[in-house]
Design brief:
Layout lengths: L8 H32 L18 H9 L5 E4 L5 H15 L4 E6 L2 H14 L7 E5 L2 E2 L7 E5 H6 L1 H4 L7 E5 L8 H7 L5 E6 L12 H7 L2 E5 L1 H6 L6 E8 L3 H24 L9 H8 L7 H22 L2 H17 L5 E5 L2 H13 L4 E4 L5 H12 L5 E4 L1 H5 L8 E6 L4 H11 L9 E8 L7 H4 L2 H5 L4 E5 L12 E3 L22 E2 L6 E5 L5 E5 L2 E5 L5 H5 L3 H4 L4 E3 L4 E8 L2 E9 L6 E2 L17 E8 L2 E6 L14 H10 L3 H6 L2 E5 L3 E6 L2 E7 L4 H4 L1 H4 L1
Parallel strand pairs: 1-7, 1-8, 2-5, 2-6, 3-5, 6-7, 9-14, 9-15, 10-12, 10-13, 11-12, 13-14
Antiparallel strand pairs: 3-4, 15-16, 17-23, 18-19, 18-21, 19-20, 20-24, 21-22, 22-23, 25-26, 25-27, 27-28, 28-29
């Protein structure tokens, strides 16, 4: 399809002439418009902040304002007005807190710019009061009252912000369910008077929660608005989701089966080579990480590379399925013929596929525009405006439009091919359901390829429990059959369904039984030192209250093989068991309390920073027959070893440890350059205090 976008000389001339005409026709108004904007745009600091000018708040927003007690998370479906609620809260708190400062953290540059535009549009704040951080902007709270920052950029400035405004700072985390990594742990350490999290996670029900690390930092969920409530109250239009299963062509099915067999064979080879490889976890990400290591054999590199390649090839096959493209084109043509005024937003997971679909639509004479992050700002703006005005009938979008809140209204949405992400599935629904005043119901189509990994999202997500059973209908369609209509063959339900934990009679379940159900909760691991830990980005967090988990896991060590463990919200401990592309759960037992993981930032923490030093992690390994204590991670492309006599001090301290600790010891930590520790069964053991900081000893070598 790339050749479709090639312009010949005459087309280039016509393109230039059209751009000149468009520029010149708008230029004659620009001076007058610019003068008018200058006159209307406030330049002085207002005595009172009006943040929602011209907006009548929904009843849920007014109720939510009354319930806010200084912190907490609002979990409201996409499209119902979370952003305007946040601005109304800013206005309310500004009255109660003189000289209020507002820090708004967002996950993307697109969202940062959209927040900026919305604040300018609905508030009386001059631009000088609104700053941005990230995407080429480097504003600060020192010079602005409101700072909108991309999370990675805010993280780098977290120490500068510190506790400077803790007595008058409102901290807002947009899309807060995404903030569980080490970057956000630094941001959450910023001192503040008020906290607010905004989320539209796919969890359903009043008891649904965002990750625990978020509620610990921002407060519990204090307001929830689901789709049923939003539709009944008139905040969102009525809608229906049609899930359309499509078959592979015969040749595609043969290729899919071959790739699946090859993936299984390579996966088994990886498990034999690497017993610690994650079973049921993100093996693709793990294989990619292994390829960055310098000590892999050629055959191991080949296995990891082949696994990544074959998984990608199978995903491409599903994305490029002939019937998927045929179905999209046939549906759009029929829809536009019956309803010429329809407005369709189409989503795809990959930008390359967005442009390929866009080219297909143009070839079929469908008035379409593309929208994604690799287009210029002006092209993206023009695409949205052409769609908003009804000139373009279809906008083909990537993730950016899903994650942004300034989406145009539409009456129809198509998930041409989406990831297995539950959050993206729900957000894409919300993008279609913008209230546009015409009272038209929304129609949402989700295309998936039958009997492939495309169906896995239905094992994880029950659409009916989230949006209501009556709003979901399931069909099978073979678009290669010209006589078969899209809604001719309705199915009884989804291709697969999650099985909830509360659907099991646990009084009859014994440890060691393998179960097929949808287990909630977080994953963690156990290392060679019997420490329970989980990864937070590149940082390890260790269990602060492991309780009897080692005893519970002991009978299942062989089946566990150092892979992922899960604790559900009810306290049950499970091991993932892999069967091809499907997981089941091995029940091990139950703990009374939820395991709490600590990043050890207390005064006695291994990660504490002071005196210019920080925590270092080391491994004990044998090189040329001699035990060596070496840095675990590469620093400046090297791993330094601790030299005599300091290594002798450490080995001497290790000899004083209890036998069970000494026998399993493969990793240790050094804090502040001198304090040497290890962990065993989540207990901290002091080894020694070095006579000299190890990193000063190696200072010349480090340079």
């Amino acid at each position: 399809m790339d050749e479709f976008f090639h312009l010949d000389d005459m087309e280039k001339l016509q393109k230039h002439q059209l751009e000149v005409a468009d520029y010149w026709s708008s230029k004659k108004h620009s001076d007058a418009e610019a003068t008018e904007v200058m006159q209307q745009t406030p330049t002085e600091r207002p005595g009172h902040w009006y943040m929602t000018q011209g907006i009548e708040l929904y009843s849920w927003q007014k109720d939510c304002l009354k319930l806010y007690q200084g912190n907490g998370v609002v979990k409201v479906v996409t499209g119902a007005g979370k952003t305007l609620f946040a601005l109304a809260l800013v206005e309310k708190l500004q009255d109660a807190t003189p000289n209020l400062k507002v820090l708004i953290v967002v996950p993307t540059i697109v969202l940062m710019n959209q927040w900026f535009d919305v604040i300018q549009k609905y508030s009386n704040l001059p631009e000088s009061m609104i700053g941005r951080l990230g995407g080429g902007f480097s504003d600060s709270l020192s010079d602005h009252d409101v700072l909108i920052g991309v999370c990675n950029s805010v993280s780098t400035k977290a120490n500068d912000i510190g506790t400077k405004y803790q007595d008058r700072l409102l901290f807002i985390a947009d899309e807060c369910h995404m903030y569980t990594g080490a970057v956000m742990s630094r941001i959450f350490a910023i001192g503040r008077k008020y906290s607010l999290g905004l989320s539209a996670t796919p969890d359903s029900g009043e008891d649904a929660t965002v990750p625990e690390v978020i509620t610990q930092a921002l407060g519990n969920i204090f307001y929830t608005l689901n789709y049923d409530d939003a539709v009944h109250a008139g905040f969102l239009p009525e809608f229906e989701i049609c899930h359309i299963g499509l078959p592979l062509m015969d040749k595609e099915q043969i290729q899919y089966n071959r790739l699946s067999r090859e993936i299984t064979d390579i996966r088994n080879d990886i498990f034999e080579r690497f017993p610690d490889a994650p079973r049921g976890g993100d093996l693709t990400g793990w294989a990619g990480m292994m390829l960055t290591k310098h000590n892999l054999s050629d055959s191991a590199v080949a296995s990891c590379g082949q696994y990544i390649s074959k998984v990608s090839e199978r995903k491409d096959l599903i994305y490029h399925a002939h019937n998927r493209e045929t179905a999209v084109i046939r549906f759009l043509k029929e829809r536009l013929e019956k309803e010429p005024e329809t407005q369709v937003i189409m989503f795809h997971e990959r930008i390359k596929e967005v442009m390929r679909l866009y080219a297909l639509l143009l070839k079929e004479g469908i008035a379409a525009v593309p929208e994604h992050s690799e287009l210029s700002d002006s092209l993206r703006t023009n695409s949205i405006e052409l769609f908003r005005k009804g000139i373009a009938k279809v906008i083909v979008s990537g993730k950016a439009l899903i994650q942004g809140f300034d989406a145009p209204a539409a009456d129809c949405g198509i998930n041409a091919a989406a990831s297995g992400s539950q959050t993206q599935a729900i957000q894409s629904i919300g993008r279609i359901l913008r209230k546009n005043g015409d009272g038209q119901d929304g129609l949402i189509l989700r295309f998936y390829i039958c009997n492939t990994t495309d169906e896995n999202i239905y094992r994880k997500m029950d659409f009916s429990s989230i949006t209501g059973a009556k709003r979901n209908r399931y069909y099978f369609w073979d678009p290669s059959n010209i006589d078969m209509g899209i809604f001719d063959q309705e199915q009884g339900g989804p291709p697969q369904s999650p099985k909830p934990e509360n659907g099991i009679d646990w009084t009859k379940v014994q440890p060691g039984e393998e179960l097929d159900f949808d287990a909630d909760g977080d994953d963690f691991q156990i290392d060679n030192g019997n420490n329970i830990f989980r990864r937070n980005g590149k940082t390890k967090e260790y269990a602060g209250n492991p309780q009897d988990i080692l005893k519970i896991l002991e009978p299942f060590r062989e089946k566990m093989r150092n892979n992922y463990i899960r604790q559900t919200s009810s306290g049950r401990i499970l091991l993932r068991q892999e069967h091809g592309d499907v997981w089941t759960w091995l029940y091990c037992g139950r703990l009374e309390q939820q395991i709490v993981f600590q990043n050890r930032n207390s005064s006695n923490a291994l990660t504490e920073k002071s005196s210019g030093f920080s925590k270092e992690e080391f491994i004990i390994k044998r090189i040329h027959g001699q035990l060596v204590i070496q840095q675990k991670k590469f620093v400046n492309n090297r791993k330094l070893a601790i030299r005599p006599p300091l290594d002798e001090e450490i080995f001497s301290g290790i000899e004083q440890l209890p036998n069970e600790v000494r026998q399993n010891l493969k990793e240790l930590f050094i804090k502040d350059g001198v304090n040497v520790f290890c962990l065993n069964a989540n207990q901290e053991y002091k080894i020694c205090v070095l006579s000299q900081a190890w990193n000063i000893q190696n200072q010349g070598e480090q340079r």
